[in-house]
Amino acid sequence: MIGEALLDLLRAEHYACDWVRDGEMADTALRTHRYDLVLLDLGLPRRDGLEVLRNLRARRDNVPVLVATARDAVADRVAGLDAGADDYVVKPYDTDELLARLRALYRRRAGQGEPVFSHHGVVLTPATREATLDGQPVQLSAREWAVLEPLIARPGTVLSRAQLEEKLYGWKDDISSNAVEVYIHGLRKKLGAGLIQTVRGLGYVVPRE
């Protein structure tokens, strides 16, 4: 019930989320996907959250991790932080505080060398989620941003529809057959038809020049 409530809360705040329910699934997800933030419970079935965290840091993955747990002893907090957690919140926690801590972790991550992406008058600032076109602000939805950022971050690299779909939804979400096309169409209307090009049979690309 807590997991479902958190998932609804985070999606309402425009986070694209994967929710896994045990430590082994968490370990697999963190090995195979790239995430901006991790919200990690320690009391997980099949594999303890501390082990998941240690495995993550052993792979030199520096993704920010907020530990949320009922283990409230000082020794438990110290163990979590020593294992590589960036922050720690104890259940029961206030949801506004949880969201504020997540935002703080994202800002901290963004301040550590997060680039500003610029291409033909379009500028994306990941730290603030701001987009401009020729200096004028452009309002992008969370999912438009999710499609555009990986494309503009790697100009000249073709990304398939499947790769972009992964940016849009969590593992359990239903994905409409034309979801990516819909968001690409919206981005072209807002940012210009030439920014994102279709590579027939392969996917989409922001050209280098």
Automatic annotation (TrEMBL):
Q: Which source organism does the UniProt entry give? A: Ramlibacter tataouinensis (strain ATCC BAA-407 / DSM 14655 / LMG 21543 / TTB310)
Kindly give the Pfam families that the UniProt entry links to this protein: Response_reg, Trans_reg_C
Which controlled-vocabulary keywords does the entry list? Answer: DNA-binding, Phosphoprotein, Transcription, Transcription regulation
Which Gene3D superfamilies did the record assign? 3.40.50.2300, 6.10.250.690, Winged helix-like DNA-binding domain superfamily/Winged helix DNA-binding domain
| Residue ranges of the annotated DNA-binding region, renumbered to this chain | 114-208
Does the record bear Transcription in its keywords?
yes
PTM-bearing positions, type 4-aspartylphosphate: 41
Query: Matching InterPro entries, A to Z?
Result: CheY-like_superfamily (IPR011006), OmpR/PhoB-type_DNA-bd (IPR001867), Sig_transdc_resp-reg_receiver (IPR001789), WalR-like (IPR039420), WH-like_DNA-bd_sf (IPR036388)
Question: One GO biological process from the UniProt record?
Answer: regulation of DNA-templated transcription
Domain (OmpR/PhoB-type) spans 114-208
Domain Response regulatory residue range list: 1-106
Q: Which SMART domains match?
A: REC, Trans_reg_C
Signal peptide per UniProt: none
Protein name as catalogued? Candidate response regulator, OmpR
